[in-house]
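One-letter codes give the sequence; backbone shape is given numerically. An example follows:

. . .
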Amino acid sequence: MVRLALLLLLTSTPAAAGASLWIWFDDDGTPTISDRRDDPRAEPYRIGTLEEIALRQQNTPHLGLGQSDLVVEDTSPQPRLKTPRVPKDVFGLVSEMATRHKVPRAFLLAVVAVESGFRKDALSRVGAQGLMQLMPATAADLQVDPEDPRQNVDGGARYLAWLLKYFGDERLALAAYNAGPGRVKRAGNQVPDIKETKHYVDNVRALRDAFVAAGM
C-alpha cells in the first residue's frame, strides 16, 4: 500500500530558489530536505515533482491483499505460490500502463497480483485502494482517482517507474513501494530487515518470473 508524509525546510529568501538543496533521513526513515547542510548524513537533492511525492513515502510494511490468493503451500521461509489467472481487462490495462511508463509488463502484473489479487475494488484495513493499493493521500499527490482502475494503475505504475529509476535496482524499488523509500535509504540502500517487506519482494519477483515463463 502507498501512503505519504514530508518535512521540507527551506528559507524564504529569494536566494533559496537557486540554492543547493540537501536531504537526509532520520532514524525512523523520515526525510528532511533543506537548503542548509545541517546533518552529516546530508546528500545533494534535486527537486522533481514525482521525486517529492516518492520521498514522502512512509508505508506500513505488508504482504499484500493478494497474498492469500497466491499461496499453494505455506513453506518456510517463503510460501510456494501459484501463478494466478489474469482477468483480460486487467491484463490490457496493465499492458498499456507498462508501455506508457516503461515498466516491464510481467513485473507490473506481479505487483498488482500481490497488492490486490487483481481486484479493482480491493480496500485494505488502513484505506489503501484499488489494483495497486494507493492510499487516498498518495492518489491526491499523483492526481489520480484511486477508485478509477485506469487512473489507479496509471498512478501506481508511474510511481513504480520512478522508484526503479531512482534506486536502479528492482529489489530496492519493490522494497520502497512496500515499506517506503525512507526505510530503504536508512537501511543503506538495502532491502530493510522487515519480514513482510522481504516476503513481498520475493513474492513479486517469483510471480514476475512465472509470468515471463508464461509469455506474459
In short: The chain has two domains: 7-48, 67-213. The first helix runs from residue 49 to 55.
